[in-house]
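Before a colleague's protein record goes any further, I have to sign it off. Would you go through it and say whether the fold makes sense for this chain? Take the sequence as given and treat only the tokens as open to question. The record follows directly below this note.
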Amino acid sequence: MTEVHSKRHVLLAVTIPLLLLSAAQAAPENDPVQNAIKKGAKYLQSVHRPMLGYSGGSHGMGSATLAGLALLESGIPTNDLSIQNITKYVRDNALAQTRTYEVALTIMYLDRLGQAADRPIIQMLGLRLIGGQNRQGGWEYDCGYALNPPDIARLRTMFNKEATLILSGPKQDVPAKNQPKALPRTDLPVEPSPSGKQPAAMPVKKEADNPPKPDENKAALHPEVARWAKLVNLPTTNEVDFRRNQGGDDNSNTQFAALGVWCARRHGVPTDKALALLALRFRSSQGGDGGWGYKYQYGGGGTTPSMTCAGLIGLAISHGSAINVLRNQKDDAALKRAMEAGEDEAIKKGLKCLGNYITQARGLPPEGVVIPAKNGVNRIKSDGLNINHYFLWSLERVAVIFGLETISKHD
């Protein structure tokens, strides 16, 4: 682990347990899980309250967005002062982000916040993530081009003005269950002009005049975002080139980027090629034990628990991408195959490897292996996965994505 990774563990130590605990079912007030959530949320509220010179916390955008996600998942309403403070900071600084973790987390936070007015920001950052993907399907710490300050200021002003048009009813920051619905956009075109210039507003068409396509849930890119899309050069999916171009990426950055790309997909960002390349990356680098390592290595290499989770997440996202595409194409047979993620041999091997890591972390031998105790003490020592918050975050993502309540019989 680099120094940056070590520092991130400190941040995750507060935010990740909240994300994990808040997924638990409702319990009585004296339940220790619920009490832990309340204490953690109260701490984060105090750290991210409105204050002079607020800059996101110890890691800027990274700590602000992780804390915001934890608070939202813990049931803190969007009209809470800490959430309002985080949201303002995120919106004001989103377009200047170029680091992979920060870009991905900004997308994830705004997606979770659920405000339609943030769609242009999510689209812009989604394209930035895709632009940062290298030829072997991964990401490193930096993920693409940076806008110059005048462009950032101009786009920020434009998006802020449009936000006042897209919202109606009560104030924007209200409890999530009472969130106002966004009105249909009539002030901006839904497609960019071929000339690149801002065209005149388009008339509103009745649904009967322009019926939606089956299962179509993608919105067009904002015209200003579409202008920047030309800066994104999707890497090749040719496997010969893929094997030849091994860069300086890692599967930790790639895990966060993959989740950010998936969230951006829901907001109209074209991601099919990027996610296909992601799948090729993990299918070509799975280790002999079914896991994945920190660095990409064709044909596999040394694996770790956290990066095995990253590989499983990457494969799950590729299945989700295929399902969406096939639903639109109405290819029932191919759709059935794509939906059977549990029949994917790479996923089966990955889950078995992950289960073995958990088994060993609990001081137990792998399934089917009997290791006699010496002087009454098991000779396998725990490797500390129970206090590795980065691993716990990744493990929680795997369990939720695959709908698992147990992994190798472990709860």
Remarks:
- The chain has 15 helices and no strands.
- The mean pLDDT is 75.
- Residues 305 and 357 are 6 Å apart (CA to CA).
- Residues 305-329 form the longest helix (25 residues).
